[in-house]
């Protein structure tokens, strides 16, 4: 004799998600007598004893908590809506509840068959002083957190989630779709900027609407320490609009005006940090970008000393993309680009 046991499914094992308790018969379409209802939640009860209370319109109901069988019930001729109420043990942290709804065939006689429903109606977990009602569970998550200390940029790390949207103190941080991978097999984005203006010192409310199989306990609030700044500007870039203002009439001021309207590289370290080292500087036709760069076939040998003179020890510096700034034109007739990478300390 051989015995076969089916693994009790948890929320992670499911593929059909909804923000309500689905009607049994319309969901299974008579392909099965059984339908699993699963969810997970964080135990933040202050009570020591717990009771699972479930009402159902199905013929049979079996209940499992954290993979262990906790009880079952069924209807009768007199009781059309069976109630399961049983004591349960909850973990500190994440708990999984799996409810198996069962039908013994479908109703085939009587009036108003189109109005007949089956499946689970209500789900509640009761403590001695508190009740959690999962009947209209939104399948979302929320928590409170304190703002990180300091002035560094704040990010919401959603690497452990699937697809949905996030809000902090009622402000949308944006939609996320971490489970959708790029051709390189990685998410296009996992960290989302949280403006410090959105945050209070304490008790900031984070709300997550998760549509897929995310793991909310993996979410973190991080800070980004900016240690490098980079600028990559070519002669074809439009100059800042602010430089278009102030038309001067004298020849001397016209010279300043034209200088002001040239494209510029501007480097800016975070507050409290200054430029301490120029990691790369090339005026000419450097290859690559701020992530991966190299000197090209055209390069001014005064690039590094010119940038060091303009930027070292400063928090903010601006360098025009202009051959006279670098002493001469290293390769006449070739459009010029200025690429600078600097370290902030």
Structure description:
It is found in: Secreted, Extracellular space, Apoplast. It catalyses: Hydrolysis of terminal non-reducing beta-D-galactose residues in beta-D-galactosides. This is beta-galactosidase. The model is unreliable at 243-258 (pLDDT under 50). The longest helix is centred in the C-terminal third of the chain and has 10 residues, at 251-260. The chain has a 4-stranded antiparallel β-sheet. A 4-stranded antiparallel β-sheet has the order 5-2-7-8, with no helix packed on it. A hairpin with a 4-residue loop joins strand 7 and strand 8. Helix content is 7%, strand content 39%. The protein has helices spanning 24-28, 251-260, 303-311; strands spanning 34-43, 50-56, 60-65, 68-74, 83-88, 93-102, 120-126, 131-133, 140-145, 154-157, 163-168, 171-177, 191-194, 204-210, 220-223, 228-234, 264-268, 275-284, 287-288, 293-294, 316-320, 337-344. The protein is mainly beta and 345 residues long. The chain contains 3 helices and 22 strands.
């Amino acid at each position: 004799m051989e015995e076969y046991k089916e693994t009790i499914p948890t929320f992670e094992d499911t593929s059909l998600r909804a923000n309500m308790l689905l009607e049994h018969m319309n969901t299974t379409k008579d392909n099965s007598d059984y339908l699993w209802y699963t969810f997970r939640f964080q135990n933040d009860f202050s009570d020591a004893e717990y009771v699972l209370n479930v009402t159902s319109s199905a013929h049979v109901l079996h209940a499992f908590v954290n993979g262990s069988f906790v009880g079952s019930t069924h209807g009768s001729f007199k009781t059309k809506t069976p109630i399961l109420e049983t004591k349960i043990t909850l973990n500190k942290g994440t708990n999984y509840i799996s409810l198996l709804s069962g039908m013994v065939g479908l109703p085939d006689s009587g009036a108003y068959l189109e109005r007949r429903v089956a499946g689970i109606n209500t789900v509640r977990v009761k403590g001695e002083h508190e009740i959690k009602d999962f009947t209209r569970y939104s399948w979302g998550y929320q928590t409170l957190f304190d703002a990180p200390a300091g002035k560094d940029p704040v990010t919401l790390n959603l690497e452990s989630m699937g697809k949905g949207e996030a809000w902090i103190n009622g402000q949308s941080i944006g939609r996320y779709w971490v489970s959708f991978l790029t051709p390189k097999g990685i998410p296009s984005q996992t960290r989302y900027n949280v403006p410090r203006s959105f945050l209070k010192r304490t008790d900031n409310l984070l709300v997550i609407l998760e549509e897929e199989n995310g793991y909310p306990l993996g979410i973190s609030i991080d800070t980004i320490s900016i240690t490098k700044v980079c600028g990559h500007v070519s002669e074809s870039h439009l100059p800042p609009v602010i430089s278009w203002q102030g038309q001067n009439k004298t020849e001397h001021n016209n010279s300043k005006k034209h200088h002001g309207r040239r494209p510029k590289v501007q480097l800016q370290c975070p507050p409290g940090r200054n430029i301490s080292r120029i990691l790369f500087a090339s005026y000419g036709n450097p290859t690559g970008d701020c992530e991966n760069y190299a000197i090209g076939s055209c390069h001014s040998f005064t690039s590094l000393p010119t940038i060091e003179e303009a930027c070292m020890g400063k928090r903010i510096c601006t360098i025009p993309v202009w051959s006279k700034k670098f002493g001469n034109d290293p390769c006449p007739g070739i459009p010029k680009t200025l690429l600078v990478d600097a370290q902030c300390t």
